[in-house]
Every structure is written in structure tokens, then in C-alpha cells.
Write a structure and sequence with these properties.
21 strands, alpha+beta, eight-stranded mixed beta sheet, single chain
């Protein structure tokens, strides 16, 4: 039976990974469709705010392949931003004040010994941090990352998806689906009645990839993260992002975002009061003045996938040559 639409590739998941894969396949003149049970950026990729931060983890370790990743990210952001009117990212820099003596010692070592490119990472003594913001809690100094970016990830992804649609990407959003493997292709049947064939299948749906019978063996770890949006007059006093036991970033003269929790044990995927209290207690110690007049505007939660070694996981299925994961 000939299906009404046939594609070279069908991608499952409309977040950062799915759209990145779609973009590269379209560059190769492939025919591509994308399926998501929600909307574009409705999963963990849809966080209200994200940081492009080359110094990761508690001690500001230089990220894996930092230069290559940063250049790829900034190139993509610039290309998408040039084609849309709504501003979704800014070059803000990131300030990372140490919160204890061990953190300060390790951060300083990482800033001085990890072969940073010129202008990427600078150690600041405590007085230097206080000159930038005397209201921040700081123990023995911190690091300044002038290359850091602050991104409204949801706006970025929706703008990117629209541009990819114009390049030929077929998006099937807010639909359930069934996929059956035939001898030469996959048959995809959607809850809206559409059906089509695809020669290759790529799963890019984060932790939900484990729901597929093809990938239920993957060593993915579910981590729930919660973010809160507040209104505070103090938000106008800083135009850089802050990373310390979480992150804080101003999104307007009055609003800022605070995140994130790292919940490995959770009973639901919705934002809750426990997560809100965690954010206020933890980040309120870093920047007490900011939270002293903060009023909650909204909350967000998402479940992201981690791996045991925290490295990317991608490649071909061991038993199915036309099935891939990213």
C-alpha cells in the first residue's frame, strides 16, 4: 500500500535535539518530518530561560568541547535571530560568585589551569565581585564569563521551527502516534488520521525516548528541574546572569528568572511548592536583596535526560540500521 506522504527521515521530538537534527538533514536536501505529542518546545527544552555557559558544574569546569559548541550555538542563534523580530537572546556575560572556600579554590584553579581561550574566563577576587554587585554573597572571589549568553529557549525554538517549516520541514504537533516497522520503511499513523511512510526514524525526545520499545534499554536518568519567574524592582540593578547554586537572570527591568532544581526522585512533572521553596531558600542566600521584594509571577517544570557519564548519547540502534537516537 502506497502511503500518502513519504519522508526520508521522521524525527520524534520537537526540542533542541530534534530541531538541530532536522536543520542538518534539510541542509542535505533530505525530506524530513517531525512528530511531537505536544507543541514545539513543550518539553524540557522549553525552559523560560537558559544560559550558554562554558563553565559548568559546581566548580566552573570548562565544558566538553567548549569552543566548538559555543561557536555552533552562537552561529545558530545569530542566523535565527536575523530572521525574526522578537529578541530571544542577549550577550549578558555570567558572574559566578563562590559560595564557600572549597568552591572558590576549585573555581580559581579551573579558571587558571583549563586552557581557556583569551577573554573567556577571568578570576575575580572578592573585592572585584563586590564592586560589580555588593549585594551578592561571595566567599573569596568568583569567575566572570564574558562570553556567557542568556536565551529565551522557547522563543528561540519556535522561531527556528518556523524557519525550518519554510525550508520544507513537515511538523505534526499535539498528536499521538503509532509507528510500525515494515520491510523497507516505517509506517507512521497519527491520531489526527494522517499516515505516512519514512525510511529512517530518529528519536530525540529526551527522557521520553525510553518509552519507545526500541530504546528502553538506554541508561537515561530522569532529572526534574523547576524554574520560577518573579517580579522585583531589584531586577533592574543587574544586566548579567548569575550562576551560583542555580541561576538568576533578569528578563526585563522588573522580572527575573530563578532556577533550577535537580530532582532525581519525583512523583509528578508539574511545578510545586516544594520546588518553589527550594529555589527561594537556595538562591535567596546568594542574592538576598533580589528576593526580599520578589513576587511570584509564574512557575515552570520539565524533565530532562541525563546519562551516567553526563556525555551526549547518540548513534545508530544496535539491531536496526535505520533507527537512531540523539
Amino acid at each position: 500500500m502506497k502511503l500518502p506522504h513519504n519522508f526520508d527521515f521522521c524525527i520524534i521530538g520537537g526540542g533542541l535535539a530534534g530541531l538541530a537534527v532536522a536543520d542538518k538533514l534539510l541542509e542535505q536536501q533530505a525530506s524530513v518530518c517531525l512528530i511531537d505529542t505536544g507543541d514545539i518546545a513543550s518539553g524540557a527544552s522549553g525552559t523560560p530561560l537558559g544560559l550558554v555557559n562554558p563553565a559548568t558544574g559546581r566548580y566552573g569546569t570548562k565544558a566538553w568541547r567548549a569552543e566548538v559548541c559555543y561557536n555552533a550555538i552562537t552561529s545558530d542563534l545569530e542566523q535565527i535571530q536575523a530572521q525574526t523580530d522578537e529578541v530571544f537572546y542577549k550577550s549578558t556575560g555570567i558572574l559566578r560568585p563562590a559560595q564557600d572556600e572549597k568552591m572558590a579554590r576549585r573555581m580559581k584553579e579551573n579558571s587558571e589551569q583549563q586552557n581557556w581561550p583569551d577573554g573567556w574566563c577571568k578570576w575575580l577576587e572578592k573585592d572585584d565581585v563586590e564592586n560589580i554587585n555588593p549585594d551578592l554573597r561571595c566567599v573569596d572571589g568568583g569567575i566572570w564569563l564574558p562570553k556567557g549568553l542568556t536565551v529565551n529557549v522557547e522563543l528561540y525554538l519556535k522561531a527556528k521551527a518556523q524557519i525550518l517549516r519554510e525550508k520544507g520541514l513537515q511538523v505534526f504537533a499535539n498528536v499521538d502516534y503509532e509507528i510500525q516497522e515494515s520491510c523497507k520503511h516505517f509506517e507512521c499513523v497519527l491520531s489526527n488520521g494522517s499516515k505516512f511512510g519514512a525510511a529512517h526514524l530518529i528519536h530525540t525526545s529526551g527522557f521520553d525516548t525510553k518509552k519507545s520499545a526500541y530504546w528502553n534499554f538506554l541508561p537515561l536518568i530522569a532529572v526534574k528541574g523547576q524554574v520560577a519567574i518573579f517580579e522585583s524592582p531589584v531586577a533592574a540593578e543587574f544586566d548579567y546572569s548569575i550562576s551560583a547554586l542555580g541561576y538568576m537572570a533578569s528578563i526585563s527591568n522588573q522580572k527575573f528568572v530563578a532556577g533550577s532544581t535537580y530532582e532525581h526522585h519525583f512523583e509528578h512533572r508539574e511545578p510545586d511548592n516544594e520546588g518553589l521553596k527550594y529555589l527561594i531558600n537556595r538562591l535567596g542566600k546568594v542574592y538576598p536583596k533580589l528576593f526580599s521584594e520578589a513576587v511570584l509571577i509564574n512557575q515552570w517544570a520539565g524533565v530532562r535526560a541525563s546519562t551516567p557519564n553526563r556525555m551526549p548519547l547518540l548513534g545508530q540502534h544496535p539491531d536496526h540500521e535505520n533507527i537512531y537516537v540523539f
